[in-house]
Amino acid sequence: MTDLTRPALADCAAPPQGRTGSSTARPTLEDVAAVAGVSAKTVSNVLRDKPGASPSTQARVRTAAASLGYRVGAAGAVLAQGRTQRVAIVVPMLYQSYFAQMVELILTELRQNHYFSTLRIAPQPADVASAILDTADVDGVIVLPHLDVDTLMAQSEFSRPTVLIGGRPSTACDCVVMGDRKGISAVARHLLLTGHSRVAFVWNEPAIQPDEDYRLMTAIETLREHGIATSPELVAYGSEWDRRMSGYEATLTLLRGGASFDALMCVNDALAVGALRALRLFGLSVPGDVAVTGFDDTLEGKFTSPALTSVNPRKSEMVHHAVRMLLQRVKGYDGPPRHVTTDADLVVRASAPS
Q1: Residue ranges per domain, the chain?
Q2: CA-CA 20 to 30 A from 338: which of 13, 38, 54, 212?
Q3: Does domain 180-312 have CATH number 1.10.10.10?
Q4: Considering only 2-16, 86-100, 190-204, 330-344, which range has the smallest mean pLDDT?
């Protein structure tokens, strides 16, 4: 007896076996179209509930899709909504351990939210603008700046949702601000509490305006609050803030200039690694002669000799906030720019023990 409740497919050939000819191949849109006797475009429209096809055509398409086991892929469904399910990550470099770790954390967080990524290297502010404007087929952009890009962001028209992570506060877009001040202040107090009274600094290039370097100013202010004065001869600047060699060269400048210090605060772990080598070259022990601290709590710092006292800026927390805000924008949130400031934790290790 004929089952009149099901559309007849007797005039159709056996279901196609996929492009590879294997019975286990995943059915394609074209396979469904061949069985239903319509175009692939019609199949796409019907399975995405777009209007236009007659009820009988819709029935044939859905029956053909069911018989083949065809399912609309997640990527296709997203494209139908005008989204690509892809986010661009803009980073100044990857040779710095901090940025490499941050990119890995962002990739993981995006994957957990079923998003893919495109990576762009942008060492200068102008490169950041180019990366945001020129990166096609992405729903949004996460920028890890190493220079102040707020003015650039405010002067540019960005059509995609954009979030800054780890830089200074921005008035132009959503941002996650690192707890620099709290972290640096904790380092300075730790050195004071452990008996150090002459603290030197290995830092990045001097700011155009001294108060712009809020990380250095916070350290100096914390020491001053506890009665410890600093002097220019105790501050050395590296030629490049993100290179181990810069920390090495800046520390050599201090030592060859005859500066006397019992603790060395470095702007980040990369420069601190170079500083450890320079101190060793001069026959100074760490922490016996000089205590050394960094910032960023990178994996590299855990394996120096001695292991590096540093500041953990809660990288995972920063990434979580950035991805959350970006995806909210992608899905339609249109409110004013939001700021999230994360905490920071002192991580005491052998280079500056308690």
Answers
A1: 1-72, 86-179+315-344, 180-312
A2: 212
A3: no
A4: 2-16
CB 30 within 8 A of CB 18: no
State the Cα–Cα distance between residues 349 and 333, nearest whole angstrom: 43
Q: Which fold has domain 1-72?
A: 434 Repressor (Amino-terminal Domain) (1.10.260)
Using the predicted structure, report yes or no on whether residue 224 has a pLDDT greater than 90: yes
Q: How far is CA 28 from CA 15, 67, 223, in A?
A: 11, 12, 68
Q: Which two tokens stand for residue 188?
A: 């300075």
Model-wide pTM > 0.85: no
Task: Check if 1-72 and 180-312 are the same fold.
Answer: no
Contact 172, 336 (CB under 8 A): no
Q: 318: which strand partners?
A: none
Backbone dihedral region for residue 114 (phi beyond 0: left; psi -120 to 50: alpha; all else: beta): left
| pLDDT tens string 277-291 | 999 999 999 999 999
Find tokens 């939001």 and name the residue: 338
Number of other residues whose CB lies within 10 A of the CB of residue 97: 20
Q: Does domain 86-179+315-344 have CATH number 3.40.50.11590?
A: no
C-alpha to C-alpha distance for 22 and 135, rounded to whole angstroms? 38
